[in-house]
Amino acid sequence: MEEKPEGEDQWEPRFAGHQSLQEREESFLARDQKINCGFVKGPQGYPSTGFDLAEDDVNYISRCHIAVISCIFGNSDRLRTPAGKMVTRSSRKNVCFVMFVDEATMQTLYSEGQTPDGGFIGLWKIVVVKNLPYTDMRRVGKIPKLLPHRLFPFARYSIWLDSKLRLQRDPLQLLDYFLWRKGHEYAISNHYDRHCVWEEVAQNKKLNKYNHTVIDEQFDFYQADGLKRFDASDPNKLLPSNVPEGSFIVRAHTPMSNLFSCLWFNEVERFTPRDQLSFAYTYQKLRRTNPDKPFYLNMFKDCERRAVAKLFRHRSDEKRNVQQRATL
């Protein structure tokens, strides 16, 4: 909860708070402290900062101990139900499958004949989010992606799945394979093509993924704080790649995993929603700031991600494809 600073008449509460650079620096210290991590409330009398859920949905979520999470905001994708025959009876009993959507996406689902039955469409529990904290749907989507421990306060594990993916494996098997076997807390795949943030920056600009000036500001900031080019031959490199694929993340909700998630979200909030630009910097700074506190991160090969989740096109890409075929 934030208090209004004295003498600032234009001040308004924000979902991610108003974190100063000094507070940002101290937030990387793995210690007992209060840090910004989304869902910040303003003083009494101020409106909600957003991402509002119905009470029934909050109650449902609070009972989840293992969660498979996805979201569709702004009608960006079709609803992909996990491959039912691959989900064991044990997972159906112990795992929550939660799909966050906005009201516009919900209307589209209704118009396409996908009406929730008792709140569910297939395995997905459909949770409608009101009062979105950002106008950029990509940034809104980072909330369930990067802050599952905030949305699911009693969950011990979560699996994040971009809405363009369909889960093809049993969730409990995935937890075993990516986390439990070797004692990992966090698992994410490397990018199938790029491994250096310099390449990722160039690609984002080439495809006009975000404002070039803001990308440059972020990149310059990171270089000034020690980010180096990726060197695959460096025996002391902290990661097998500095660019994640990012559409599939498996987490144990441990203190270090949760701290990393908060720090990564704050970078996405401060700079650009292109989370691949901030991943390696955030991880390396966390490790550098806390050399005595291990964080067991498993960065696996992207072919392993493709083996567990099938990729589909976004709605906008589907339309483009149809238009291209029509002009041929």
TrEMBL record:
It comes from the Eukaryota. Residues 2-314 form the TOD1/MUCI70 glycosyltransferase-like domain. Signal peptide: none annotated. Pfam families: TOD1_MUCI70. PANTHER family: ALKALINE CERAMIDASE-RELATED (PTHR12956), TRANSMEMBRANE PROTEIN (DUF616) (PTHR12956:SF24). This is TOD1/MUCI70 glycosyltransferase-like domain-containing protein.
